[in-house]
Amino acid sequence: MAMAKGNSSVETDISKISNSTIDTDPVYHRYHIETAMTADMSNLPNRFLVEVSRINLLKLIIKESRDYFGKLDVILNRPCVYGVFSGPIGGFAPRPNHCVGCLRCTIQHPDVVTIKHNPEWKSWGDTYLSPKLVDTILTEASTGAVPVKGQGYRGRFGGPGWDRIWTDMSEIVRPTRDGIHGREFISTVTDIGSKPMHLSFNSKGEIIGTEPATLSTQLPILFDSPPQTIKSAKLLNVLSKSAQEIDSLAFMPINGILGCKLSGKHLVPQVNSSEIELIQKLNFSPRLIEALDISAVKSLSNQNIKTCFRIDFDEGWEELMHKAFDIGVRVFHMVADYHGRGDGNFIRDLIIKTHKDFVKKGIRDQVTLIGSGGIAAAEHVPKAIICGFDAVALDTPLLAAIQAQPKGECISSEFSNFVLPKSFTVSWGVQRVKNLCAAWRDQLLEIMGAMGIREVRRMRGELGRAMFQKDLEKEAFGDIDGYE
Ligand code: SF4
């Protein structure tokens, strides 16, 4: 395997690779992800069970026929505008797949109709990546488009996790409005690596001192390695190929890369200290390697290989991060569990703290922070970036996109179980993942357009452009006795 040689630090090494990948083709290509309708393999169970008492329905029809004799439009009137009772024999064969749970029918005819939650539907998610979110992901993965329900927002105006943040989308700051179809291009290019806090030039205008040492991806959306419980070559192929096609990066265990004979600069091999030797067996030079422990960081820095350090938000993660920084690591992959929790906090608070610490030290631009865990919907991506991540690496949403069914609560990578669809093909999976990324990118563009931000790099850490439920509540109720 050919590795870059002769430089003394991790940063310089990345710079070399970065320069070597500069596009020399003068033709401008606007970044675009090809989408295509890709139907689900198996349909999700209906969200609601619609139970109709046929005897009571018959009694109702007889009564209404008597009361409204001759007024067919009244007698045949159905109580559901969503068409649940609009089949050929109406309420005798309801169509629960149309039911949205508005409960109008059961309020109007409590003796005839009962609406219940379908317990089977719940088995397609867990308490964090809820079946409702899975449903949205499936729509995005099959259409590649932003899901439009036409019902407005029907959820809560605050809540746990990312729902405690609102983004500032005032009309007045919308020079790039209409993100997807807007007049001005909004860039989602993300730099991964280290940039100096300033550039220095000599009298000839040449750069002296430290130069930016970054590689770029077209999206701030990367792919994390699958849960340790899933050993599927097909899945690794799906992640690798889709990352390659959308110009992203896929983190992957080095054994999986070697075992599946995968290759390409879009792959980020993950190694622990006992797997360093395996790097020589790769048939490509990776742009970045992920160290899974601090000993691996040391070995990689000795070998002059550009490194990303994966840190779980467990006790002592901050000291580990500082240690790795001192060794020369400038890219950190910070990992919460699949429910976004780590070290007793939600990932939102952890990243805000980390981002602010680096800002306080005056070295924020020297590091890249990538986050995983708890990113389960399109709007979580911009919120995570506003809180301080440069990019996110997706985990469970990618599995949801290819209809992997969770078995029980899925919290940690070590113990979460998913059942992959039996007959899925790599090409089907790749298109589903590409569709999901296209839909999430479009939603990112919408939010950035609405906020008047023209490139995602400028959104990182823009906490002033977000509103936090806690702050607003304090502002409104802080003076009232008993608040908090
Ligand atoms: S709950 Fe609403 S959507 Fe469902 S069947 Fe009744 S009226 Fe139709």
UniProtKB/TrEMBL annotation:
Gene3D superfamilies: Aldolase class I (3.20.20.70). It comes from the Archaea. GO terms for molecular function: glutamate synthase activity. InterPro entries: Aldolase_TIM (IPR013785), Glu_synthdom (IPR002932). One of its GO terms (biological process) is glutamate biosynthetic process. Belongs to the glutamate synthase family. This is Glutamate synthase domain-containing protein.
